[in-house]
Amino acid sequence: MQEFTTFLLFVGRQDGNAEEAINFYVSLFKNSGIDKMVRYGPNEGEREGTVKQAVFTLNGEQFMAAGSGIEHKFTFTPAISTFV
Asked: What Rg do the C-alpha atoms of the chain give, in angstroms?
């Protein structure tokens, strides 16, 4: 069975804010926590230490997030993406 996961991508001015946002979201809901946090290392083309990929749970529902300093034709918006 395929799973669908809400995915948040922090780009542009929001790059580097993924971890702060995740910690805030997790603090708001019971039955929540950070399941996995992978950070960019040296020489990976992004700011070292920022979130490369994160998986977190909010009230029992799983979410994913990532940051990217690469220029995109879009910015972080109130909209969401779905990862399949």
From this structure: 13
16-58+68-83 CATH: 3.30.720.100
Q: Where are the beta strands (DSSP E) in 1-84?
A: 5-11, 33-39, 51-58, 61-68, 81-83
From first to last of its 84 residues, what are the pLDDT tens digits of the chain?
A: 667 888 888 887 777 889 999 999 999 999 999 999 999 999 988 889 999 999 999 999 999 999 887 777 766 665 666 666
How many other C-beta atoms lie within 10 A of the C-beta of residue 54? 22
